Amino acid sequence: MQSIRLPRTLVNKILAQAQAKDQQEICGLISRNTLNELAIFPVSNIASDPCCFFEMDPSETIQAMKEIRHNGAELFAIYHSHPSTAAFPSATDIEKIAYPDAIYLIVSLNTTGVLELKGYKIQDDTAQPIDLIL
Question: How many structural domains comprise the chain?
Fold first, then answer.
């Protein structure tokens, strides 16, 4: 199983964003530069039913991708939340994958006491778990 290390500050930003909109799926991008430094780019969810799905705002996504390239970085991961289900990719998540080289991070708010964050590599309609080192 592949392992990746996520800085606690980055994880805290994702968790805070999810908690701030606990009835909606949140989403965004994470970049990685040549020094292996990660940066987060929250993107608005414009899905017609944001409590159950996410669709990244196209203009914000384009702006984030421009900034990522301008900083000499690359797209590393895409994250979103599941307000009421487990941190596992839904059939829709797998079907709508747009960047098969990216890691997909999902935070679940459907837990008691501790938020759940899981990572996956999604290819060929299959979600392979990634060991997250936080």
Answer: 1
